[in-house]
Design goal:
Elements: H1 2-22, H2 26-46, H3 50-75, H4 87-110, H5 127-135, H6 139-160
Helix pairs in contact: 1-2, 2-3, 3-6
Length: 165
Amino acid sequence: MHQFLFIVFAVFCAGGAINLLVQRKTINSALSLIVVMGSLAMIYLLLGAEFVAVVQVIIYAGAIMVLYIFVIMLLNAGDEEASKGSNVAKYFGIPGLFIGGIIGIGVLLKHRPNDTPLKLGALYGPADQVGMLLFTKYLLAFEVTSVLVLIAIMGAVVLARRSDS
């Protein structure tokens, strides 16, 4: 069952990444990136890295994507146009929601506390171990990423600022 779910979320992740590249509107690309981030969180959860999965949802799919959408709206990437709705949600979203819910309930009912999670990856473990790795071994990468995000926000504000002339 875990391998089946892994394949399902890997397909969602790859489909979201391809959709991110082929979209014409930047806001649709950002929403596709949220699908990729959510799928990655579910893959982390299947691998037994619960903390990394929660951080993926809170930090990346939550905070970072809000920043991206804010920058897109700040830059006024295009005029808003009215649409009649999406058929993708009707044909894939609603059935996918029900199928995913049924699979999720089945996995929760079959999960036993004695099962040991699969220990893969360097960041597997309790939150204190992940924090110690993040702020010791990976401190430089963490700080460089923070500075790059700050520079991107400042660049977006400078580009979006209207000139007085």
